[in-house]
Amino acid sequence: MGKFTKYKARLVIKGFLQREGLDYTEIFASVLRLNTLRLILCLVAKHSWNVRQMDVVTAFLNGVMDADTEIYMMQPPNFVVPGLENKVCKLVKAIYGLKQAPRCWYLTLHKFLVEVGFVRCVKEACLYIKRVGESVVLLTVYVDDITVTSNHDADIEMAYDLLKSKFKMTDLGLLNSILGIQVDIKNKVVTM
């Protein structure tokens, strides 16, 4: 039986009340294709590279809203600011439940990765590549799950440090499970 460790709560917006064309226009956010993951893992196995996995803590809350988007929400019950009971909150960042939250997060992450020198793959929007001298760093994104691999372990650490400088991250160590798939890499063989 599990053990209670902490209380947890999330403030969410009633996204089901949002109206297309009025409250949002675009909600699509790319996710990593399974075939791309397989290809990366083949490279990893062939060249005996390490793959580090990490998770962005509360990723959607990092998503910045478009400058031309205005969304307001009522103050949550039991958290109303005294004296301002009739006021609403204007969102400046995405929040859970917002239809465009995944897209806001993806675009925020994309902008950051480009700023620090990664280039998005033309054919796979969730694969980013960075060349550092003779080294190549491959970074994949599936919503808030990120993997980083490279032919030099120091560059994996560099990529992790860059991400940590901008977002709160959980280091999951070497890859052993992704998208609910167990991954085992031994002796240049990948088993999924």
TrEMBL record:
Name of this chain's protein: Reverse transcriptase Ty1/copia-type domain-containing protein
Record InterPro entries: DNA/RNA_pol_sf (IPR043502), RVT_2 (IPR013103)
Coiled coil: none
Family matches, as Pfam families: RVT_2
The Reverse transcriptase Ty1/copia-type domain, residue ranges: 5-187
Domain of life: Eukaryota
